[in-house]
């Protein structure tokens, strides 16, 4: 990866301003990278940046900044920082902030704002960023006094990471960042907050949970994204190994238990496997672990796990009994809870055997007819060959589901996907962020021909910083997922899904200075994977696939998870 | 069915908007609102709220409101159904 340009030495003896306080506050929080794009109202901060130790990554669209900060945060575990100017800069950040909110990603979004005397006058590039983002932030601040900057930043970082993480917005009016401070304010050295502060559940609740587990004949672990967020995967794996309770994972829970583990049935839900969905329907005890009964996972809610009692543990009390009443709820630090759950006796060997048999029976097949590229087989082979350093960052659509179904994940950070918001355009910026967080990882963005165009401009960012991102573009010349739904649920009334006039993607990548090649046939796949994995710089594989390919199995919208459709 | 939600919170920019927004977004109508004048200290907002459909619970709403930064306490008290006396 290219070193970022060294800061230009400041010859000026500029006064210490609010903007300098912003930069200092970020440095005090241990921030290394900020992802951003400059403009009028945020210019004082950009001015102060040149003399700082912060490394600024210049993206080509503010949405790219927010999504890159999201990818950085998911892989590093530290808050991602993005920065934009007022008005259009701020509104361009909004999708990325919403993405972080719905996927519980710690983020600090910094926006410039018109000077305070002009706020509320419809001034140039004035927009109520605070108001627009209210429903999609954990908290937000408008800083009106430069002396407050250190404490606001310290509080923002603490909030973004505490409990259930999320984005925090700091809106900075230009007069506040321009104001000279006679005496530089003291740096609030609060530092990054401890990641979680919880009261632990009482011994009674733990004992009740253990009793339910010991009584169960068909217990099932239902693993969600909260496990990775809480960094509790080791405790979960230990619990899973010592109890042998079969497990399923949500889209966001993938990687918490490594793919291929014993008693692990992979993903449940709309595009989950038959074994996972049937196991849920048959289970008599569901142990929901950092999972939130999302509709994509549960299907028709009142038919989900109809015979199961529920143990629900989560960091966020408002998730408990939100959609499904819990028989026992355990709110608190997940590692401690999992460590405390030590059932003395379990009589579930028949259930384990049954689950294992279902897993074998419903295992995906990779022997598709024809000689065209079969995307599931390509993705499986690519992830297996990439090994434990593999990180997939996905866009949204059929390709995203194939990644979830067929790739091998060895840790939660190996699968970056826009699960809550479903943001087309997430993949490439998230890949950028992931590489800044873990430069030695094998980061692969898997995208579609629709999604890639949503943030195609970020190829320039990849080139600029010589990021060794590997892009696999699965091109079906369609908005494939929408086409699939139109085929299945709208009587094949295909409406506005045909992308027959796509650009030549390999040429396009080359125009950005990125190595690229096209794959048409199945026989070319092994060499393509080798070439991708051995490339030292950025590379794009443009893979043409059959436009009629669908994602199977599928639970139709509004149906029970037991009513899966197969090819 | 309505309830009174009594929320104690620390004053800050946008705090009232945040509280009302949370209630509306979580599927409740705000039917009444009282906020006593306060000085620099903590503030109290009492909202009459009615669920927009039968699946919404006051308990879950209270937990969502309690999560908002700056909220120090939330109490929900269901109102007894209004009964007209047959004369
Ligand atoms: C920003 C945004 N706009 C629209 C959608 C709705 N949507 C979901 S999947 C999809 C099609 C994606 O097409 P492509 O990227 O080519 O992937 P494919 O399904 O073909 O694999 C669309 C339009 C979305 N999720 N995000």
What would your notes on this structure say?
The complex is a heterodimer of chains A (567) and B (87). Chain A is of the alpha/beta class and 567 residues long. Chain A is 35% helix and 16% strand. Chain A has three domains: 172 residues, Thiamin diphosphate (ThDP)-binding fold, Pyr/PP domains (Rossmann fold, 3-Layer(aba) Sandwich), CATH 3.40.50.970; 159 residues, TPP-binding domain (Rossmann fold, 3-Layer(aba) Sandwich); 170 residues, Rossmann fold, CATH 3.40.50. Chain A has 21 helices and 18 strands. With 87 residues, chain B is of the alpha+beta class. Chain B contains two helices and four strands. In chain B, strands 2-3-1-4 form a four-stranded antiparallel β-sheet, with helices on one face. The two termini of chain B are 24 Å apart. The mean pLDDT of chain B is 89. Classes of the chains: A alpha/beta (567), B alpha+beta (87). At the A-B interface, strand 5 of A face helix 1 and helix 2 of B. Thiamine diphosphate binds next to helix 16 and helix 19 of chain A.
